Amino acid sequence: MTHSEENYIKAIFHLANTGIEVISTNALAEKMETKPSSVTDMMRRLSKKGLVHYKKYQGVSLTTLGTKTALSIIRKHRLWEVFLVEKLGFTWDEVHEIAEQLEHIKSEKLIDKLDELLDFPKFDPHGDPIPGKNGEFMEHDNQLLSQLPIGSVALCVGVKDSSAVFLRFLDKNSIALGNKMKIIEKEEFDNSLRILLNERELQISQQIASNLYVKKIEL
Amino acid sequence: MTHSEENYIKAIFHLANTGIEVISTNALAEKMETKPSSVTDMMRRLSKKGLVHYKKYQGVSLTTLGTKTALSIIRKHRLWEVFLVEKLGFTWDEVHEIAEQLEHIKSEKLIDKLDELLDFPKFDPHGDPIPGKNGEFMEHDNQLLSQLPIGSVALCVGVKDSSAVFLRFLDKNSIALGNKMKIIEKEEFDNSLRILLNERELQISQQIASNLYVKKIEL
DNA sequence: TAAAAAATTTAGACAAATCTAAAAATTTGT
DNA sequence: ACAAATTTTTAGATTTGTCTAAATTTTTTA
After folding, report:
1. What is the pLDDT of residues A7-26, one digit of tens each?
2. Contact B117 A87 (CB under 8 A)
3. Residue where one domain finishes, among candidates A15, A41, A62
4. pTM of the prediction?
5. Looking at the partner chain, which of B102, B107, B117 has a beta carbon nearest the beta carbon of A105?
6. Residue B107: inside a domain
7. Nearest protein residue to nucleotide C16, judged by CA and C1' positions
């Protein structure tokens, strides 16, 4: 598989996991930052290789083999991200681009050894689950901060948007994975939240709250 | 730069460092395991980018920029090799292929941090020197085992041939970098050597002896 | 339901990297 | 020094991945 093919497979997987069942050529083109005609070409190629189900004008989806492939790439990507943060001291907003390159390195043994070096992590630095060696994959079953009722206490366990801009915003406001937060009040006007975090009161916009995964703590 | 361009630059550097001053299209084609016509095409491309001096029928050599580029790639390759052995537990015969892929990862910061993690190593697992961040490069000034006079005592510091076959042969015979060896006798007939290594006498063919770099210990 | 709009595919072109076969230049041998 | 051998380059084709522009299919809407 070429890097480009792998990137398409990964993009299809990610789109499929945002709830869409049939992925349109246009949607995939936008995700890949390319033209729909290029997508059509690539879908034929991937279809011939048995990685996707594709009938023209009918959209595309991953085959069993395609899903397995996607999970393997995502596993590599996320393990490398853990490595970059834990072993090399990168910050969580710096690792994505480098992991995009590292995920294409071909060596099963390398990934096994890396997994071991990192002590078999289950989540990447953004709180995303790392697929297992044999394709085991648990979805985010977590709620978004924006979905919690007032008075809830929850742990911050992940980010939905993992863009560098958002991550640096969180850093600036001392919001990190593992933090405990309590929802004090929800503003009717703009759905912003007042939360208690590290003994400090914080005003959080709805946009932010709907990009933070939390795990509710039952009291 | 594409992976292919980087591989050509590296190949030219390695050929230049085996003593050849002008590198022929054929020699480079053989090194790259490709056809001379492909080499000609690539030399034009690299010449246009200012990485090589190339005039048709006149052979090729690296420009200052080309040399800098080559050293940067070799630095990455060798640092990754150290990582694979020291941190992931690979053996020295397994690391080359994986490092061939890793050397193309683009991130200056990544290499700086890797260098730091590895505690700024000066040699890779095969005893080859690692170029510095700013292009400092020291040649192997070492002698080959085959060049030492009888009675010499020397440390084994590197391998000239770093093919997996040769490296596994050395493993099988418990010859490792850092070992001290004394030359007991040289056989007139086939230039093989009898050496003392780890309190053990060993017969070594001329072929082997001319692929082991040693550093003489003056007594 | 038929025309308009939107989405998708086809056709043809391009760049990178390679190949084979043929032509041209250089080197070698006598 | 000149023909033969060798090396190198050119010409034209192929594959991957992309593009634009045109054609086609599907969806929407009036």
Report:
1. 999 999 999 998 887 899 99
2. yes
3. A62
4. 0.93
5. B102
6. no
7. B2
